[in-house]
TrEMBL record:
Residues 200-392 form the Glycosyl transferase family domain. This is Glycosyl transferase group 1. The keyword Transferase applies. Keywords: Transferase. GO terms for molecular function: glycosyltransferase activity. It comes from the Bacteria. Residues 85-193 form the Glycosyltransferase subfamily 4-like N-terminal domain. It holds the Pfam family Glyco_transf_4.
Amino acid sequence: MKIAFFDYVWTFAEPPKFGSGILCYQLALRLARGNDLIFYGSKAAHHQELEYSEDGITYRRIPNNFIDKILGLLYVLDDWKIFPAKRPFFTSILSDFKYYWQIAKDLQSQNCDIIQINFAFHVSPLIRAFNPQAKIVIFLQTEWLTQLDPKMIERKLKAVDLVIGCSDYITNQIRTRFPNVPCQTIFNGVDINHFVVNNEAKKNKKKEIKTLLFVGRISPEKGLHILLEAFNKVILQYPQVQLKLIGPEGKYGVLPIQMINTEDPYFQTLIPFYQGEYSDQLRQIISPNAANSVCFFGPVEQLDLVEHYQDADIFIFPSVWNEPFGIPLVEAMAMELPVIATYSGAFPEIVEDEKTGLLVERSNADALAEAILRLLSDENLSQEMGKAGRQRVVDKFSWEQISETLLVEFQKICDPTVK
């Protein structure tokens, strides 16, 4: 089977180190065993060639172009609210048009069986126009299909053979809004052979110093303001506890507010944190008692995250919005960390409350502090949850299993007799 993957324009055609491109790459890496796999992406400044192969994947690079640089200026229209809220510019065919046109045109000569589009659902009619014979699959990690104009979405989905949601939370919304669109849930995953705890190193760690860890974008919807409020309470009882926040800040970290579901009851609580720099507001929340115990670590390459999970005692993901999935949760569980998350989005599909971790109400600093204190005070419970979490990841969230499931779905849409 010949399969092509592509993502948004900011994904480079190379093995990625950060961001959503990692998900696409992990699947491509495994599907390339036994299939012909093409991975499209942008050409970075350091790239010398437009095509190269590695680990069975052929990377095809799309050069930067003047047309898209000019069209990119139109993104400001979303900030000015020129486009309707339900039809933002990024869903327009003009959004990075030349980039996607070059991919569509190149695909025409590749004669692929499957074309998987990650995130960029809006270009499916363009891809279909050049590739009428291919099966087109959309892999979604967001709620966009159910947040945007349903008539516009319905037109775009006519070009699609299958929509895959990264969680039942996403897929069930699509089924409700678009009952005639074929869709399936295929979870995101983790490399269970890379994210493995070193038990000997864990034993040698100083027991009296506990480390709480967050990994993700430093953005209002992630609920870090709630985490810091909770931490101010925790440190009064555990003065030596440390909090490490790993992830990009500023424009590389903050999700644009127009990408958050305005119908979410917690949306209004996030608006004040978009008035000014979020990271500055976070630093102002930290109490004097906690000032020397909070570390903003910045972004870390995915392969280097293991040492930070290894060093942690509890992983916390305090999202205020409905999280579509939550890759750091499964990474932390793979590393045998007890996790604390919120009753939001897909988190209850990942975390078994009271078994692999604890779930608390969204935007509730008191409940979050109570959960942290409970795990800090009960080493046996933390260890039991960590081991149960690792087993759940091995059983349900390994990239090997997920890629096999995806391949079966590809086979089904290419050959309806496959079951």
